[in-house]
Amino acid sequence: MEQKVTFRQVKQEVLARIRANIWAPGTLLPGEIDLAAEFGCARATVSRAMRELTDEGIIERRRKAGTRVKMAPVRQVKFEIPLLRVEIESTGAAYRYALVSREVVDAPDWLRARLALPQGARVLHLECMHYADNAPFQFEDRWINLSAVPEAEAADFTTDNPNEWLVRAVPFSDAAVRFSATAATEALGRFLSVSPNSPLFTVDRTTWISGQAVTNARLYHTTGYEMVALY
Amino acid sequence: MEQKVTFRQVKQEVLARIRANIWAPGTLLPGEIDLAAEFGCARATVSRAMRELTDEGIIERRRKAGTRVKMAPVRQVKFEIPLLRVEIESTGAAYRYALVSREVVDAPDWLRARLALPQGARVLHLECMHYADNAPFQFEDRWINLSAVPEAEAADFTTDNPNEWLVRAVPFSDAAVRFSATAATEALGRFLSVSPNSPLFTVDRTTWISGQAVTNARLYHTTGYEMVALY
DNA sequence: CAGTGGTCTAGACCACCGG
DNA sequence: CGGTGGTCTAGACCACTGT
């Protein structure tokens, strides 16, 4: 008796044919039934293989039209963003956190625009430093919408960092992320031990829970920081 | 007769319970058979829902141990990276490309280290500019391994940009990407119309085909560029 | 309208690994 | 060892959409 054909084998074989240009970009592939017959497996097995290739942006499928190799491969890059503490400790360094400032204010205009807050909305503004082995690692400029998370006003952010607190309070929210390069201001330079105008890798993250804005964070990394991904 | 229960419904319901803290982080969830019974569907349907939640980093599954809500949610960010031409034209701007320099050289040490090339390996070094409506958009510093892609030496890169040429020549390769912020050198500043030391959002991409290094590209974006993702 | 992918089912066997 | 997830099968019906 032969081994069962797995969806991984099917996927790999299809990928190999695409890479070898047997199925060039734009080519119409055989239907699932034909492939199942060729590979000697059930249609569901082919289906799973093709679905994963679709998710990875390799092929395009449309009912009735069939399956084609994508012309312009839209490459997808997937980053994993662990908790900062985990990221730092995984390098062998000790993680340390410090609260720089804390105040409750009316949301400034730019924040109200970004979080879709009404006029006069009260927000908690936190500035924090994160260290790896006592070397500055990241400066955090955090705003929390107090009408979405009123408990935040009473929380003690001198020991817990805002992100970890929020993960506990509002787990599994939706978010949008923007990466950019910004120049260090004089103040940022002092916190991060870099000279003014140094390039800083910056992450801007906005978080929502069921349509309501929860928080916005600007995370400034020290010069030299890189974000790595495989794809 | 009732509607069939779909894997999306199952997934959504499980997610809802997690969000509502009915199943808090660390909680052991019921097994697939129990869930299938509760939702009134086949085990395969539950399985698919749970597999997707696993892929999204929401839950953790281990044979015999069962399924748990993740303690520290490892958030995943997925970027779609279209062809530069497509990215620029989708903003309504006109895309223009220009080759700045082209030379065939022995790979410098840092490149040999990164691409795992033997001593004396010949590479094609290209410098290119990409414009959006004639405004500088990106400076590309590209190295192509000629032993992996010998046809590149004869290719005409004055009209085709290297990335589009490579996509045609070597489709669907593996790659690693690194994002960082770097300071503009004087030369880079001239090309990108920014002052020296301006922060530049930089993408460093290395590409492999079946274990062999194909190309390395450093892509310097003008100041102000942002990379956006939802997750 | 007909052909393609998308999904569900019920059952089966297997692989892994915790107790 | 035995319970859990992981996968395959064969069949069925459905949803979308090109012709």
Describe this structure in words.
2 copies of one chain form a homodimer. With 231 residues, chain A is of the alpha+beta class. The first copy, chain A, has 2 domains: 63 residues, Arc Repressor Mutant, subunit A (Orthogonal Bundle), CATH 1.10.10.10; 153 residues, 3-Layer(aba) Sandwich (Chorismate lyase). Helix content of chain A is 27%, strand content 37%. The first copy, chain A, is built from 7 helices and 10 strands. Chain A has a 6-stranded antiparallel sheet. In chain A, strands 1-2 form a two-stranded antiparallel ribbon. In chain A, strand 1 and strand 2 form a beta hairpin. In chain A, helix 1 crosses helix 3. The longest helix of chain A has 13 residues. The two termini of chain A are 37 Å apart. In chain A, 30% of the residues are buried. The mean pLDDT of chain A is 93. At the A-B interface, helix 1, strand 3, strand 7, strand 8 and strand 10 of A face helix 1, strand 3, strand 7, strand 8 and strand 10 of B. Strand 3 of chain A pairs antiparallel with strand 3 of chain B, so a sheet runs across the interface. Chain A binds a DNA duplex (19 and 19 nucleotides) through helix 3.
Overall CATH architecture of the largest domain in chain A? 3-Layer(aba) Sandwich
In N-to-C order, the SSE pattern of chain A is HHHEEEHEHEEHEHEEE
* Full CATH superfamily name of the largest domain in chain A: Chorismate lyase-like
- CATH structural class of the largest domain in chain A: Alpha Beta
Query: What is the percent of helical residues of chain A?
Result: 25-40%
Kindly give the count of domains of chain A.
2
Q: What is the total tally of β strands of chain A?
A: 10
Indicate the mean pLDDT of chain A.
93
Greatest interface and its participating residue counts: A-B, 52 and 53 residues
% residues in beta strands of chain A: 35-45%
Amino-to-carboxy terminus distance of chain A: 37 Å
